[in-house]
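The authors assume throughout that readers already know how a fold can be written as discrete tokens. A single example would do more here than another paragraph of explanation. An entry of this sort, consisting of the sequence and the corresponding backbone structure tokens, reads as follows:
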Amino acid sequence: KRGEIVVVVDDEDRENEGDFIMAADKATPEAMATIIRYSSGVICVAMEDERMKELNIPPMVTKNEDPKGTAFGITVDATKEHGISTGISASDRATTAKLLALGSTTSMDFVRPGHIFPLRSRPGGTLTRDGHTEATVDLARLAGLAPCGILCEIVSEEHPTEMARLPELERFCERHGYVMTSIVDIAQYRRDTGQ
């Protein structure tokens, strides 16, 4: 709700990775720069299928061969009318993310291709798919914000050619002051509260 970055981990039998997640409508250049610094840099924005259709963001491919079924859309940037230069800076990417969450924007507010990777969340969120995409949308919705959020995989500081995994992620969160939760915990919270 306050626009803070959290770390969400998935099951050790799935990807065993941690993602930075934050509400897209709370994106700032500073938060985006932090995410970029410690991550793969492939900034994704998860949203519901209906919103992607409203924004005319089709699937990236007609036949999705991703082993986890991640539903990538065509990449986007906000248009120059929104102050975007090349689209790659933390400032530009924060602007694009915020506009993806803003209900009043239309497909005309974006150019394709771009530097933000939209992801289509499955209906039912973490109750139907245990992915970071669905966790991102669930967290934003649970916070009372637009069901749209930023996510990006955290890279290992100890082994920079690999992704960060538990228990390194626990040390990382403690060192940098991030709250860490799991996709399983988000799904259980939803079950327990009926949300």
Summary: The two ends are 16 Å apart (CA to CA).
